[in-house]
Amino acid sequence: MEWSSYDGILLPGSFSSAYENDEWIQKLKCVIQSEIHTKGRKTLAVCFGHQIFAHSFHITKHGDDESSNIDNDSGGLATPCPRGLQVGWRGFTTESEWIKPQSESSSRECLSMLYTHGDMVHSLPKHCAVSLGGTDTVPIQAAAYFAHVEECNEKESEIQVSKIDGMQAKTQAKMRQPYAFTFQGHPEYATDIGIQTFTNILKNMEDNDKLEQEASMNARKDALESLQSVESDCVKLMKVVGDAFGWMDVDAKANANAKG
Known about the structure:
Elements (H helix, E strand, L loop, with lengths): L8 E3 L11 H15 L5 E4 L1 H8 L21 E4 L5 E9 L15 E8 L1 E5 L5 E6 L7 E5 L7 H8 L4 H10 L2 E6 L8 H16 L5 H33 L4 H10 L1
Parallel strand pairs: 1-2, 2-9
Antiparallel strand pairs: 3-6, 4-5, 4-7, 7-8, 8-9
Helix pairs in contact: 5-6
């Protein structure tokens, strides 16, 4: 595969879990580390993609045994949501300058998306990722990843990566450009076709006894009522990604294609 011939990589949702041992999941984690993270390839990851991106940095103390003790201070980790399945409209509070608030007087903003997930990102790899915000139920709803840079000394490293929000995140963001953005929510649901996909997934959950019919109906109702604000917020989020990756610069892309 000629990885460099692509403008970017998309890691979509899945009914599988990032912590499962299926062969394709293990292979995907290796690809994320060897071809995406190591080489800083531009990537947008959604839902399962958000979870497996973090989980590809998963560190255990006993080989590859997922049930062993986990070094949560440095590795990423995906786990089941403690409060169960999350479906429908959700708003999350941003905590990073990568998602600019509308108000200059506020350092935070609440952005809404549509969700269908039972797993979540429990922790991020602190040496190369920052949280972009979350909720009380799911603290890490979005994240940005940076190409790994060896720090000058241990003290400087501790200052830059000891926290994933606040001034530390802002300092890190100013130093490096993200190569990947990941979101727990589904920006693609905020379209006419996407809302039908959202409905189909809820139906699948009903059919597999993962979601009660009443909860499914309420999720559909919330989604339709909030669709206009969700669409606006998702466009905003995707513009952040597009601007950071240079995908919105039509002239630059045209010149690059002409040279190719």
